[in-house]
Amino acid sequence: MFDRLVVNVMVQTRRFFPTLLLAGIASCAGAQSSRTKTPGLASPRIGEAMLAERTRVREGDKRDGAVARSVVARRTKTREAKVDGRLDPGLRLEELGDGTSAAFTYDDEAIHAFFRWTRAEAHRLHLAFPDERGVPVVRSVQFAHGIGDDKATRAIDDDGRTLEGVAVVDTEDGEGIETRIPWVLFPEGERTRVGLTIGIDAGKVTSSKSARGASTKKASASQSTTARVAVLTDPERALRDDLLRARLLPEEPLLVRVADLGGDEAKELVLVYPGILAIVGSAFGAGERFFYRELGELTEIASMDVRPVTGRAKSDLVLTLRQGSREWVEIESFLAGESPTMVFAQTVALGEAPGRVVNRLRVGHERDVEVSVDPAEPFSLDGDEYAVPADLRPPLLPWGTTERVLYRFDGKSFRVEREITRKAKPVVSDARSPTTRAERIDHPAEPRSPFEQYLAERRLPPTTTPEHRLSLKLSRGGEATLTHVGQDLVLHGPAVGGGRQYVRLSLPIGKPEEVLAIEARDLTGEGEDDVVVRIARDLRVEGRDGTVRSEHLIVYAVTSSTLTRVFAAEVARQVGDKRVESAVRFAPKSIELSPGTVKGWSEATYGWAQEQPGGALEPLVLPWSGLGKLRYEWQLDRFVRNGPKNTKR
User: How far is residue 577 CA from its own chain's centroid?
Assistant: First the structure.
């Protein structure tokens, strides 16, 4: 049969170091005598509205034009925190809608916000934390303006009590506030600091008297938020910019789970996008990196459970994946380092009706997994129909001698602890009438080659003509063929699984003609061919007429069982007859990018800033950027930049 391609990647964020927030935390002067430590839960309507907002963004509704749907919160150092009502020059306000704009930073102790908004007696900030399944749990902080002798803004809860530890300072013009809100103010904030959404609405301040005659100020606001936006931390921004936007993927995930994967009590987001599984967290990868795994275009995650199953003080990933008629379950665990290890993989469904085999699988909480045959016993006479990739356990067959298998986690993987057998059952043509005599079904002729098998799997005609085809030299004199069909690269030939398998990789393109060129080069200096692919995408950019053509150069290292992306860079950008292009130079074990040609643009008219090196996609080198030559050298398993060189004076 064939191998599955699995690519695991940890990506470093591009760090920002804004000059902001000097020292100390300003106290909230004139606080009321009544204090509370934790704000209450917001109205369920607010949570529903914020969840509906995320759905609206996912479905591509952009009726609000330039209004931000996500803003970046930059990480700072706690000792630099200062609240003085002045926007730091290193920050820029983002328009959130309805006259409200904001800028955010965060550190290990608090989230820090600067707001400008339309005048009102009170504003209410809703901060939504995702629960285990990504549903927002909303906490509200009321900002009542003009309270006390100094007519200042106070942070209060729904009952009018001052919230302890929240620093608030009005701006000099009275059109906004700067505030610093400790994470520990919220029960959820102590462990969950990613996947945040904020909402803001305006209202009035009302007065009421207690039985003792004391006057209490309360903020009254509307039940629907007028401004809602996702707040992205550094690793979430890197995930969006370096992966999702680089591959033109939707920014809203298909599935969300929240759990402690590292065992450090800080929770991570586990996100599923088309063909991608990603993990991001405030402590994961030191809060600077995100992880993603390539699933492949044809593989989808049917379900995802995140809970401890290996008997350790951390959660594991239990994934049910589907590719065509085959379903399998994987358990991924963080045993060491920042990438998960596959500790269990079992096929649970395979084949087409009426010959479909289904297994029952139970994943316990005490380091055990049990696989058993489903009572239904479908018909089949061809055991080869139920072959699976080498890294997957095959399903238990209804006519086989194994009825049930119990696996136990031994600290490294799930191994067979006990196997329950039975007498082999005869194969029947219909499970509902076991006495029916078995009759052989004539199956179509088996494909003669792995490439024909690929065409059959993709339901493509045998006469399909490839767009490109290359002969490759692999290690130890092995030979293989790389074929480009549609959006896929298919590796097959004598060196791939003994000539009986193929490896498929989906290119980040929308149509075959977006591949401009494919060539084989020994770039890693290991005497083997690597694959260099140049693609072009026509993109629509907000605020610009027409399309922007972006060309990318991607390098894949090739082995007999993998195609692994080891380098990618944008090398050209074009709008109409205006074009700018980087110069690319290949040398043994190195790739060099430098300023190239430009037509129709100048530094003043180009309209895009120079992006900085680092991340999943290296930047286009502009002639006026001062970056000079960017040299990337081969180091173990990827091309790494060899030191910064800036020539701009």
Answer: 35
> Torsions phi, psi of 233, nearest 5?
-80, 175
| Displacement of CA 250 from its chain's centroid (Å) | 10
Out of 435, 466, 482, a domain closes at 435
Q: What does the alpha-carbon distance between residue 527 and residue 522 come to, in Å, rounded to a whole number?
A: 6
Query: CA–CA separation, 644 vs 625, rounded Å?
Result: 13
Instruction: Give domain status of residue 63, yes or no.
Output: yes
Per the domain annotation, does 340 fall within a domain?
A: yes
Residues 467 and 426 in one domain: no
- Residue 168: count other Cβ atoms within 10 Å of its Cβ: 25
List, as one string, the DSSP characters of 436-454: SPP----PPPPPSSHHHHH
Tokens of 569: 């860079």
**Residues 361, 454 within the same domain:** no
Asked whether residue 461 falls in the same domain as residue 349, the answer is no
C-alpha to C-alpha distance for 636 and 404, rounded to whole angstroms: 43
Total domains present in the chain: 3
Cα–Cα dist 298/316, whole Å: 24
Indicate if 403 and 510 belong to the same structural domain.
no
Residues 458, 421 within the same domain = no
Q: 217 - beta bridge partners?
A: 207
Q: CA-to-CA distance for 316 and 299, rounded, in angstroms?
A: 20
Please give the residue range of the domain that contains residue 116.
17-232
- d(CA 340, CA 317) in angstroms, rounded, equals 9
Same domain, 35 and 159: yes
Whether residue 88 sits in one domain with residue 179: yes
Q: How far is CA 432 from the centre of its chain?
A: 45
Give the pLDDT confidence of 415-446 residue by residue, as tens digits: 888 888 877 655 444 333 332 233 333 334 44
User: Virtual CA dihedral for 396, 397, 402, 408, nearest 10 degrees?
Assistant: 0
In what helix (H) or strand (E) does residue 456 lie, and over which residues does it extend?
Answer: helix 450-457
Q: Which of 205, 232, 259 is at the close of a domain?
A: 232
| Amino acid in position 354 | P
What are the angstrom distances between the C-alpha of 600 and each of 110, 271, 431, 543, 593? 47, 41, 72, 19, 21
How many whole angstroms separate alpha carbon 348 and alpha carbon 373? 9
Residues 351 and 493 in one domain: no
Q: CA-to-CA distance for 172 and 85, rounded, in angstroms?
A: 7
In 70-170 the beta strands, taken as DSSP E runs, fall at 70-75, 94-97, 100-106, 110-116, 122-130, 136-147, 152-156, 162-163, 167-170
Q: Is position 251 within any domain?
A: no
DSSP 3-state of 55: helix
Least Cα distance to 121 among 162, 46, 174 occurs for 174
Residue 513 lies in a domain: yes
Query: What is the pTM (predicted TM-score) of this model?
Result: 0.59
Q: Which of 437, 405, 430 is nearest to 418 (CA)?
A: 405
| Counts of helices then strands in the chain (DSSP H, E) | 3, 39
Quick: pLDDT tens for 12-66: 544 332 222 222 222 233 333 345 556 656 555 555 555 554 444 433 333 333 4
